[in-house]
From TrEMBL:
InterPro entries: DUF2809
Keywords (A to Z) from UniProt: Membrane, Transmembrane, Transmembrane helix
Protein name per Swiss-Prot or TrEMBL: DUF2809 domain-containing protein
TM stretches of this protein: 45-64, 71-89, 109-128
C-alpha cells in the first residue's frame, strides 16, 4: 500500500512540474514568440495548445483518481465551453477580456481553430501524463 501512495505522489508531483512548465512555455511563446521570429501559427495556436494542456493538467491534479482519458474528455468539455463563452458579450466582460489576464484566461475572439488546438494540447498532455506510466 505505501508503494501505491508513493507512486501516486510522484505522478502528482510530475503533473505539477509539467503544469508549471506548460504555463511558463505558454507565457513565453505569447510574450517572445514574434521577437524570436516564430511563425504566427506557432505563436497563436501553440499557445492555445499549451492552454489546453494546462486545463488537462489542472484537472488531473484536482481530480487525480480519474483515468487520463476521462480527464482528457473533461478538459475538452471545459475548453469548448470557454471558447463558446467568447460569444457572450457584456461591457464588464469585454473590459476584462481587454486585460492581459482576461486575454490569457478567456481569450477575445471565438475560433473553431482554437478548439482544434486545445484538443491537440489536451491529447498531448494525456499521452505524456505521468500517471499513464
Amino acid at each position: 500500500m505505501p508503494e501505491i501512495v508513493r507512486s501516486h505522489s510522484r505522478a502528482q508531483f510530475r503533473r505539477l512540474a509539467a503544469l508549471l512548465l506548460v504555463i511558463a512555455l505558454g507565457l513565453a511563446i505569447r510574450r517572445f514568440g514574434y521577437a524570436l521570429d516564430l511563425p504566427f501559427v506557432i505563436v497563436k495556436y501553440g499557445g492555445s495548445a499549451l492552454w489546453g494542456a494546462m486545463v488537462y493538467l489542472l484537472l488531473a491534479l484536482g481530480i487525480a483518481r480519474l483515468q487520463p482519458v476521462a480527464t482528457a474528455v473533461m478538459a475538452l468539455i471545459v475548453a469548448v465551453c470557454v471558447e463558446l463563452f467568447r460569444l457572450y458579450h457584456t461591457p464588464w466582460l469585454d473590459a476584462f477580456r481587454l486585460t492581459a489576464a482576461g486575454a490569457l484566461l478567456l481569450g477575445r475572439i471565438f475560433s473553431l481553430w482554437n478548439i482544434l488546438a486545445y484538443a491537440m494540447g489536451i491529447a498531448a498532455a494525456c499521452l505524456f501524463d505521468p500517471a499513464r506510466r
